[in-house]
Each structure stands twice: as structure tokens, then as C-alpha cells.
Amino acid sequence: MISIQAMTPNAITEHFDTSRQAVSKHLKILTECQLLKQEQNGREIFYQLEIEKMKEVEEWLAPFTKLWEDRFNQLDAVLAKLDAKK
């Protein structure tokens, strides 16, 4: 949601079955990791995704993604063999 538009913690909370405090805690951690930026507008704080930082995370995860895809494909093959034996 915040990749599309900046949102306040209250606006984000409305979309989840959780407390505002829990959402704020997540927003704080993501902001500390520089994955979100915050902007003060009057009394409200708006959070927005830092697209460039997310691209860095995606690049870092790419080798692991390939590894896990291969392992899940191997698991699928083993499960298919076991299912065929039944």
C-alpha cells in the first residue's frame, strides 16, 4: 500500500487486524532500515516506500531465491514420486 502512496500509521492500521502500536513498531523498524521514509505534514507523519532501497534488497536476495527455487523443485519431484507410489 505504501509503495503506491504515502500513508499515516492510522490509515495503514485500518487495513489490518492489529493495533496501531504494532503497526508503528513495524514502521519504526522499516524506517531505521531505510526501507521507508517519513515526512511530517502538520501533525501527521506519512510513510512511503524507498524504492531504491527495496531494489538493493531484491538484488541481495536474488542468489538465495534461486537456491530455494531449486530446492523446492527437488522437493516437488520427491513428493510426486511418493504420491505416484501410493
Please give a structural write-up.
The protein has about 90 residues and is α+β, with helices and mostly antiparallel strands. It has two domains: about 1-50, Winged helix-like DNA-binding domain superfamily/Winged helix DNA-binding domain (Arc Repressor Mutant, subunit A, Orthogonal Bundle), CATH 1.10.10.10; about 50-85. About 60% of the residues lie in helices and about 15% in strands. It is built from three helices and two strands; from the N terminus they run ααββα. It has helices at about 10-15, 20-30, 50-85, and strands spanning about 35-40, 45-50. It has a two-stranded antiparallel ribbon with strand order 1-2. β1 (about 35-40) and β2 (about 45-50) form a beta hairpin. The longest helix has about 35 residues, at about 50-85. The relative contact order is 0.12.
